Amino acid sequence: MFSRTSSSGRKKKGRRSPLATASLILVGLLTTGGAYALFSSTATADDSATPAASQQSIDEGQKLFASNCATCHGLSAAGTADGPSLIGVGSAAVDFQVGTGRMPMAVNGPQAEQKPTQFSDEQVADMAAYIASLAPGPAIPADEYLQADGDTTNGAELFRINCAMCHNVAGAGGALTQGKFAPALDGVASNHIYEAMLTGPQNMPVFNDMNLSPQDKADIITYLKYLENNPSPGGFELGSLGPVAEGLFIWIFGLGAIVAVTIWLTARSN
Which ranges does the record mark as transmembrane (predicted)? Predict the structure, then answer.
């Protein structure tokens, strides 16, 4: 009897109280949340890390936004039934969409198509500064990542893994569903390529800095610029559309030539 009581007493004495368990869970949650916040803060470049734009630039951008964009996105950029909210999209999204002429849209369609921009570089920068002032978001990339002097081999591998299924391995573009398409990347400015990866416009996924580091993005740009500046080693590239175009060429011209020669030889024998 004495030993049972003693054993039971020790068990009761060593039992953890509910308050201690709750405290441990709370500490674990706070630690996990803090670590996530630390890593996520470096996952995507945000406008808080860039030099602050002048108030004059922000004011000019607000005027331009009100007269050209507010119809769809609302006067406060919070969005309407005709356009999404721009709160938190950052200056990179504005520089890409407006700088490539995709915005403002000329006509409604499956996706906004590139066209000549109607704004100067300074006006685009002003609108980007205004949107960036509303909330932190992905920033316009630093020049050091836009020089196309990175690792071409690594860029080619990353492009094949992450981008080629839509844009084609040679960046020639391709058709998607419901009338949408992945545009060709030949001639696209380095900053716009980087910003597209960073912000994921339209059908494109977002590749933040946890998916592809800034140097990875720079390497992909290096690969695309290499393709742009070097002719195809195989000769006539047939639009870089791959085996479908090459096979069609063989069927039409190769077999057609064989049939023509066969008919010619048959005619001569008669």
Answer: 248-267
